[in-house]
Amino acid sequence: MNAPLPLPVVEPLDRSLRDELSRLIDAKTKPQGSLGMLEVLARQIGMIQRSLRPTIERPAMIVFAGDHGIVQESVSPYPQAVTAQMVANFLSGGAAINAISGVSGLALEVVNAGVATPLAPLPGLVDVPIAAGTRNFAREPAMTREEARAALRVGASRVRHHAGLGTNVIGFGEMGIGNSSSAACLMSRLCEVPIDDCVGRGTGLDNAGLARKRNVLASALALHRDVTEPIDVLATFGGFEIGMMVGAYLAAAEAKMTILVDGFIATAALVVADAIAPAVRDYCVFAHLSNEAGHRRMLDYFGAKPLLALDMRLGEGTGAALALPVLRAAVAFLNEMASFESAGVAGREAR
Fold first, then answer.
1. Catalytic residue numbers?
2. For a Cys staple, 288 with which of 97, 215, 248, 319, CB 3.0–4.6 Å?
């Protein structure tokens, strides 16, 4: 039996081209800085690819699905069976991520990371579950450390698969009833933020349900108060789909891909990846500001400025998929826009 591949190793971003990229950007036929975040993106993508003429090749979105034992504590208004039902919806092309990936030009992959309900063999499904859902972390750790590391390895292997197909821009989405509870606890423990500032309504809790969710998660954090090491925090509070996203972030950064970061759950997975390998954040583009409570605090933790703010909180990778055309525009202006010199346009006069 082959030994499992090692976890990815993330190198710090090579910034040697930063000044030259900045000179190219400033020489375009525009006032300096007038393209705002597009200029920031063009410089970042150029540094990631170590190129003055970066490209976007076979962009991909991987949606990881998994179930959570914490739903036994009534932290979600939806039944756990919805996770499997939505996986079928993804595979039949009927979900929001299908529509948005299509219009943005993303290759879409759906991965069963650990759905509790048995799934029928469905065309297009990458069926690699660690187990049939996690345990209830209000009572015991959600995963063993070995299960968490297995999830990291599988997530990394999916990214390596896409790298082999030529992908250099990638995003990650998720589906899992109860996963906003996992994300809130990961955020609280690793970002050192009070749980009340992390917990939101998820899939639509009313006020009473929100209060219950806060109490359940506060008690769970107290139960596991001594757990602080990143992989142990993931094993204690995470989900299989979140663990696979963590491994996927690390592998994407290792492969020097530009990473589109989605909303609350996807950013919580990045918090874990960042705790393991802080250089991963340099490869990330924060696609949007989720309307889920706590996401702004996580973006502040990264010092991140999101590209979009559309009051979305669906997950599935939808916000990340919507941001891809902005990346295309950033690369296009860098590669196609004339300079003052080449266009024969007078530059700003010195004073």
1. 316
2. 319
